[in-house]
Design brief:
By secondary structure, this protein is of the alpha/beta class. The chain has 2 domains: about 100 residues, Zincin-like, CATH 3.30.2010.30; about 140 residues. Helix content is about 55%, strand content about 10%. It contains 10 helices and 5 strands. It has a 5-stranded mixed beta sheet. Helix 4 crosses helix 7 and helix 5 crosses helix 7. The radius of gyration is 19 Å and the shape is globular.
C-alpha cells in the first residue's frame, strides 16, 4: 500500500449451496452472515419457482459497501451491511434482477417486477420484505400509488411509468424521484399480473420483444393496460381527496 492510500477493509467469505458471500469483518459478525446466507438460499429457491427459471452459476453477495445503494451487476449483488443487520436489505428484489434481468423491457417494468415478486415471496413466508419504498407491500401499493398522484413528484415521474425511459436523478434523489417511480411501477406490474398471471409477467420479462410479449400474453397493448390502471389509481386518489 502506498503512503496516503486507504487500506482495503478486511474481508471474509462464506460459501454454501448456490450462494457465496463476501463481507467486511468489521461490519458484520460471521454468525449474522451465516444466517443471511441461509435466508438468501431459501429466497433464491422461492424466487426460482416463482419466476419459472433456474439460476445458472450461483450468486455472489458483497456486503459492506458503506452508504452504497443496493445494486446488481451480472451475478453479483451489492448490499450495505447495515441493512443486513437491520433486516431491511432488498436481497429478494436484487435476486429478481439476476433471474429476470429484463434486458429488452423498459425500466419501470424491471423495477416493478422486482418489487412485486419480492412482496410475493415475503407474503409466502420465504423471506422478508425490505419495504424499499412501500410500507405494506402488495396489499398497500395501490393506495401508496394513489397518494403519489396527489404529489408533484409523482406527477413528474408518471410519464415514465408504462412507457420508455428513466426519470432524471433517480440515483441521486431516492426519496423524491426513485420512491414515486418504484411505487407507481410496482402498482402497474401488480395490476398487469392480476389481469393476466404471474407466469405471464415472468414471460414478458424474459421476452426479447417486450411489446409483442405483452400483447401475446394478455391480448392488449401496454398502452391499454396503462390507461386502465391509471383510471383505477386516479379513482382511488379522488376518493381519498374527495
Amino acid at each position: 500500500m502506498r503512503r496516503g492510500e486507504a487500506a482495503e477493509p478486511a474481508r471474509d467469505t462464506i460459501r454454501g449451496g448456490c450462494i457465496t458471500i463476501l463481507y467486511e469483518r468489521k461490519a458484520l459478525n460471521r454468525e449474522d452472515v451465516r444466517a443471511f446466507a441461509e435466508l438468501a438460499e431459501r429466497g433464491l429457491g422461492a424466487m426460482e419457482r416463482l419466476a419459472g427459471c433456474k439460476n445458472r452459476g450461483g450468486l455472489c453477495f458483497e456486503l459492506g459497501r458503506s452508504g452504497a445503494i443496493s445494486s446488481t451487476r451480472g451475478r453479483t449483488i451489492y448490499l450495505p451491511a447495515g441493512r443486513i443487520a437491520a433486516r431491511t436489505a432488498p436481497y429478494l428484489h436484487e435476486i429478481v434482477h439476476v433471474l429476470l434481468p429484463c434486458r429488452r423491457a423498459p425500466a419501470w417494468f424491471s423495477e416493478g417486477v422486482a418489487c412485486y415478486f419480492e412482496c410475493l415471496v415475503s407474503e409466502r413466508g420465504e423471506g422478508y420484505d425490505s419495504h424499499l419504498f412501500t410500507a405494506n407491500g402488495n396489499a398497500g401499493v395501490d393506495t401508496e400509488a394513489a397518494r403519489w398522484l396527489t404529489d408533484a413528484r409523482g406527477h413528474a415521474v408518471l410519464p415514465y411509468v408504462g412507457t420508455r425511459g428513466t426519470p432524471r436523478r433517480i440515483l441521486e434523489d431516492r426519496q423524491g424521484v426513485a420512491a414515486p417511480f418504484y411505487v407507481l411501477s410496482h402498482s402497474l406490474v401488480k395490476y398487469l399480473a392480476e389481469g393476466t398471471s404471474v407466469p405471464a409477467v415472468a414471460q414478458m420479462a424474459r421476452s426479447r420483444e417486450f411489446a409483442k410479449a405483452v400483447r401475446s400474453q394478455s391480448g392488449k397493448k401496454m398502452a391499454e393496460w396503462r390507461e386502465q390502471w391509471l383510471a383505477t389509481v386516479r379513482a382511488e386518489r379522488d376518493t381519498r381527496t374527495g
